[in-house]
Design a protein that fits this description.
Number of strands: 11
Shape: globular
CATH topology: TIM Barrel
Distance between the termini: 50 Å
CATH architecture: Alpha-Beta Barrel
Strand order of the largest sheet: 1-2-6-7-8-9-10-11
CATH superfamily: Phosphatidylinositol (PI) phosphodiesterase
Largest sheet: 8 strands, parallel, barrel
Radius of gyration: 19 Å
Order of helices and strands: HEHEEEHEHHEHEHEHHEHEHE
Mean pLDDT: 92
Strand content: 15-25%
CATH class: Alpha Beta
């Protein structure tokens, strides 16, 4: 019995050490509570996600902005979510197989908008509202972290980075530790069977010891996540909900998170 107790205590201690975020770094860059998911987009008005008009609308409304960045074949940092163009343009081709110039011939969601450069978005926003920059990270040799940080280095406004991929956070921890960084995580889809072990590691934030995030951005379906809630309550690490799509959902998850990435409605800013 004593031996079992020692084993359980050791396992609990190892778990708490594994999920330990960076301590004592309060992310002042998260200057507002609500962040428009890929901008304040509305396809019915010809404003697709992750487009310059979507970001302009978010700035005008006073919301923070969440956006996604990745690299083209010729090393340009562009703002786009998916790794391919199937959903956005009906083209079965990867973003990193295009040069930036080639991408300008591809309309987004049958609109007049094209994939923008990250530098264009930074010039448009110009520090007026805070940014959450999700780094899309395909492999360790992509160079996207270095390219993104080079563009952000002299940016005049508040920003932070986040990524599902621990290697991206580890890069910033090593080379740009002053940048506020967040670990993206999610509860696996119910239909997923036979998942690989790394998915459980990511779901339960078991690489926090290596990435040392300043916040956790967690799928709203994971509001009861033990690891997320321990980080928040025990370690004081704020959590961001994604993606809230209705006012009803916002009220349901409000007490489990500190900040909210939303789309499809306008949250009450004073709430």
């Amino acid at each position: 019995m004593k031996r079992m107790k020692e084993i359980l205590l050791g396992a609990a201690g190892a778990y708490l050490a594994a999920i330990l975020p960076r301590l004592g770094h309060h992310p002042k860059e998260l200057a507002v509570r609500y962040y428009a998911h890929r901008g304040l987009h509305d396809l019915q008005q010809g404003v697709p996600e992750n487009s310059l008009p979507a970001f302009k609308r978010a700035v005008e409304a006073g919301f923070g902005i969440e956006l996604d960045v990745q690299m083209t074949k010729d090393g340009q940092v562009v703002v786009f979510h998916d790794f391919d163009l199937k959903r956005a343009a009906g083209v079965d081709r990867q973003i990193d197989s295009y040069t930036y110039e080639e991408l300008q011939s591809v309309p987004l969601f049958a609109s007049r908008e094209k994939v923008p450069l990250f530098s264009e978005v930074l010039s448009l926003v110009n520090g007026q509202v805070p940014l959450i920059v999700e780094i899309k990270y395909k492999n360790i040799t992509a160079g996207v972290c270095e390219a993104v940080q080079k563009l952000l280095k002299n940016y005049p406004g508040p920003y932070c980075i986040e990524s599902f991929h621990p290697q991206a956070l580890m890069w910033f921890r090593r080379y740009a530790p002053q940048v506020t960084r967040g670990q993206l995580a999610m509860r696996p889809r119910d239909m997923e069977k036979g998942r690989k072990p790394q998915y459980a590691v990511a779901e339960h934030l078991l690489l926090n010891w290596a990435t040392k995030p300043d916040f956790i951005a967690y799928d709203i379906r994971g509001r009861y996540s033990l690891s997320k809630n321990l980080c928040r309550k025990l370690y004081g690490c704020p959590s961001i909900a994604w993606t809230v799509q209705t006012k009803k959902e916002l009220e349901e998850v409000r007490r489990y998170y500190d900040y909210f990435i939303f789309e499809g409605f306008y949250p009450e800013v004073s709430g």
